[in-house]
Structures are given as C-alpha cells and as structure tokens.
Design brief:
This protein is mainly alpha-helical. It folds into two domains: about 1-225, Fumarase C, Chain A, domain 2 (Up-down Bundle), CATH 1.20.200; about 230-315, Fumarase/aspartase (C-terminal domain) (Ribonucleotide Reductase Protein R1, domain 1, Orthogonal Bundle), CATH 1.10.40.30. It contains 14 helices and six strands. The protein has a two-stranded antiparallel ribbon with strand order 1-2. Strand 3 (about 60), helix 3 and strand 4 form a beta-alpha-beta unit. The radius of gyration is 27 Å and the shape is elongated. One of its GO terms (cellular component) is cytosol. It comes from marine sediment metagenome. GO terms for molecular function: argininosuccinate lyase activity.
Length: about 325
C-alpha cells in the first residue's frame, strides 16, 4: 500500500539532506525522509476521513417507499440486522432525497487527490533539470514526439490534472443538489457519473503511485549541493543568540544585518571570520562555526515533529506503529 511504500522509502533514505522550501524559496535544510513523510500523514488523515465517512454510508435506506414510508407490516430494523447494517435512516423524505453520503465521499477523495497532486508537483519540480533531485523511472514517463532528449513526468502530470476532474465531480453534484426541493427529483440520477468517475480516478492513481515512488531514484549529491547554498543557517544563528538571552526579535535583526554584510561582500557565513560575527554581536563565540554546518542545522531540530535525527526516528517509529495497528490502508 502507498503509506507503506512511503515509509519504507523514507527509512531507506533517512540520511539524505534536502533543501526545504517556503514560497518556493530555499528556507532551511531538512531530511528528505522528513519531507516525504509529510505525505504519509496526509494519507493517514485521508484514511481516517474515509473511515468516518463510512459510518454515514453504512446506514440502511430500505423500506421508506417513494417518500412517505409504507402501510405494509415491514420491520426495517430486522432487515438491517439481516444485512448487517448498524443503523437505519429515520426520515423517509430525507432518505429518498439524501446524497450527503456521496458528497461526503467526494469531499474525502477530493482532499486525497489534492494531496496526490501536491506530491505530483514536488516530483515534477524535483525531476526537472532546474532541480535534478530525483529520476523517475521510464515506466512512468514519456519522451517527446519532437525533442529526443525529453523525459516527461506524465503520470505525475496526469495525476495533477485528474485532481481537477475529481473536484469537478464534487462541484457538479453540489450544484445539482443546491436547489432541489424535497423529496426525490430525477436530477439525482446524475450522482452516478460523478461518483463512479471519482472512484475510477482514485483507484488508478493509488495503483500507480506506490510503484512510481518505489522505483524512483534520488540524486543525493545534487540535493546536498543545493542544500549548502544560500544562508540556510540564518535561523540557526538567530537561535544561537536567543540561547544566549537575546530576544528573538533582536536576534532576527542582527542576523539580517549579517546576511546584508555577506551579500555586500559576496561571501557566505562560512567565509566570515569570528571578528565579522562579533561586529554584529559580542555574544558570538568560536562555537558559532559548528552551528552553521549543514548537518548541524538539520540535526538540531529535535522538537516533536521536527526534522532532527532523533525526532525523525520517533516519527518513523510512530508511522510504523500506525501501519501495524491492523487498520486497513488506503491503497491495497
């Protein structure tokens, strides 16, 4: 299943360092595994939403007639027990006109597809020459009819596009339902096309994605090379000053001045001498050079849920426990 593939791929590559982005601008370095596991937890929420949705799907509607119930001596609760339904619907008019359970399911799978689309966008960017962080297997890419050198991430791109189709299925049914008077109207037969298409799409995507991730190759050195660029340790330097009693607001400003000085002199933090740091603040000591190392910047983020080495190990352990709880995974 997809979550298991993500977890195993994360465990296999837990030493790989990747640039972390905000606003698509390099922000701080993180473990690649930490980034990938974000999608594990998205899928975990998707799984819980679908399970919760099933509670409202698994309700017996039989026996309500056309809209008013029936005068025949039926026992709906008995039928529910025979068919293993835990509940029966309580209002006949609501029952024949209700499509909430379809809409709720479509909401759940729309969120799931949104998560797959975000992962697709990451893979599309990472596999492009501008990033060159990963190589997607030929089985999930195509060439160009004109340009011999091209290797296009078709599965990721089509997943991104199929997300819009599932959104359309949800919005189409919402628009159908919005002005229907009670109770049944023929408009409701249009729920089938929206539901069936969304199910087909999500099953296709969840069938392909575990295979694509499992066969993906990481370009470790390219990731590391990019992670070492820029002023990735700026926040670490601010934290360094905070640990010495400087309010973060002031520490932020001091490090901003240090970055400005580096830009003016065309230098990195590593190029500066201790005296350069001490011109900004006398609190900088020789151990500051340890804090601006790439590994140190990643390793020291040990708050729960952070990218630190111990924190990542805890996260992997918790993810493993989630899979071993015996709950049915999203993709099987």
């Amino acid at each position: 299943n997809f979550q298991r593939v993500i977890l195993e791929f994360a465990e296999k590559n837990r030493q790989v360092i990747l640039p972390g982005y905000t606003h698509l601008q390099y922000a701080q370095p993180v473990f690649f595994s930490h980034h990938l596991l974000a999608y594990f937890w998205m899928l975990e929420r998707d799984k819980l939403r679908l399970k919760d949705c099933y509670v409202r799907v698994n309700v017996l509607p039989l026996g309500v007639g056309a809209l008013a119930g029936t005068s025949l001596p039926i026992d709906r609760a008995y039928v529910a027990r025979l068919l293993n339904f835990p509940l029966i619907t309580e209002n006949s008019m609501d029952t024949v006109s209700d499509r909430d359970y379809v809409l709720e399911f479509l909401c759940c799978v729309a969120l799931l597809m949104m998560h797959l689309s975000r992962l697709s966008e990451d893979l599309i960017l990472w596999s492009s020459p501008a990033f060159s962080f990963v190589e997607i297997s030929d089985a999930f890419t195509t060439g160009s009819s004109l340009m011999p050198q091209k290797k296009n991430p078709d599965v990721a791109e089509l997943t991104r596009a199929k997300t819009a189709r599932v959104y359309g299925d949800l919005f189409s049914l919402l628009a159908t339902m919005k002005a229907l008077p009670l109770s049944y109207n023929r408009d409701l037969q249009e729920d089938k096309s929206s539901l069936f298409e969304a199910v087909k799409i999500i099953k296709q995507c969840l069938k392909l994605y575990p295979r694509m991730i499992g066969k993906m190759k990481l370009k470790h050195e390219n990731m590391r090379k990019q992670a070492q660029k820029g002023f990735f340790a700026a926040t670490d330097l601010a934290d360094y000053l905070v640990e010495k009693g400087v309010p973060f607001r002031e520490a932020h400003g001091m490090v901003g001045k240090l970055v400005k000085h580096c830009l003016k002199e065309n230098k990195s933090f590593e190029d500066l001498a201790l005296k350069d740091y001490q011109k900004i603040s006398s609190l900088f000591e020789a151990n500051v050079f340890q804090r601006i190392k790439l590994e140190e910047s990643v390793f020291n983020k040990e708050s729960t849920g952070g990218t630190g080495k111990k924190s990542l190990a805890r996260q992997i352990k918790l993810a493993r426990e989630k899979l071993e709880e015996g709950e049915n995974p999203i993709a099987s």
